[in-house]
UniProtKB/TrEMBL annotation, chains A, B:
Keywords noted in UniProt: DNA-binding
InterPro entries in the record: HTH_MarR-typ, MarR/SlyA-like, WH-like_DNA-bd_sf, WH_DNA-bd_sf
Pfam families: MarR
Organism of provenance: Novosphingobium taihuense
Region called Disordered, residue ranges: 1-21
Gene Ontology BP, a term: response to stress
Keyword Repeat on entry: no
Protein name, as recorded: DNA-binding MarR family transcriptional regulator
Amino acid sequence: MSRKRAPTAETALEMAGSGPSERLTRNLDEVLAYQLRRAQEASFAAFAARVGEAGIWPGWYALLVVINDNPGINQRDLSHAVGRDKSTLTASLRELGKAGLIEKTRDEADQRSFRIALTAAGQRHLAELEFHADAHNKRLDRIIGSRNRTILLQMLRDLADNLSAE
Amino acid sequence: MSRKRAPTAETALEMAGSGPSERLTRNLDEVLAYQLRRAQEASFAAFAARVGEAGIWPGWYALLVVINDNPGINQRDLSHAVGRDKSTLTASLRELGKAGLIEKTRDEADQRSFRIALTAAGQRHLAELEFHADAHNKRLDRIIGSRNRTILLQMLRDLADNLSAE
DNA sequence: TATTGTTATACTCTATAACTATA
DNA sequence: TATAGTTATAGAGTATAACAATA
């Protein structure tokens, strides 16, 4: 996780803007899975561009939120919560630790695991990310119309929940 | 693009299913960007699992669609259409060529570029993918309610278009 | 024996930069 | 000089498997 560039972010923004030939993708317009990917990429790129300026690491967001909401969580549960393998957490948590955003303490009851919690700096950092997330969400609201927000969120949650269930 | 496994696909499905501790991610529920990612991942995983069984390469789908709709397209335009750098196309197109799905012929008018088109096999392959995409879309429709499909698609396209524009 | 977390390793996807050949 | 496509290289993100410590 070296922080030099956020390659996918800006570049995706640039490229997407300048379509040279009009509508080469007409027949993908109706493919839900494809539009889902486009929207996700665009949303991520925009969010990354926003927080990138502030020198904040967007990939940490979900991690910080879950830790904040579940202080003392261990890595196994954390990895399940964010849907990634536990092995991928090691590096991220080390970075978060180095940045002074989280604290790991041995679980006295079970010496195999750690209890992870945000430090004060971690809470401030999260607050800053929330601020940007908020601004980003408002931008998305303006695009889709804020009354549609609830519907869209519900549909997305339904999709994720139902497709995963089995 | 060695075809041995489709790691993200099945594994994501498995993991997402068995949440051990309930709702560790409550406060991410309202974060549109996050739910967008979850839905996209789940959708991709489900589609990959479906076509994976049939030995079909889901990453090729968008490429094949665009080529089919724009026979004779060159790599520069193709790369813009799918939103990837031209350098990433080289390998994919080589695979598609090896698989006998596309044909590259020199553009006589401009010897630097190629004209890319689907072969008959490519068209059959695309038809098979479309079949699976169709089934997948129907499954998504059942989840969100088919009347909501149009709305969702519109919102996703709006998001992608507006966020990229600038 | 089973589980938590780490390490070693590998694979996918994508990008940038330098290059070749044409224009 | 500029453009189309290729190659070399790198990095982010993720996974699996083997391992050490602990249960």
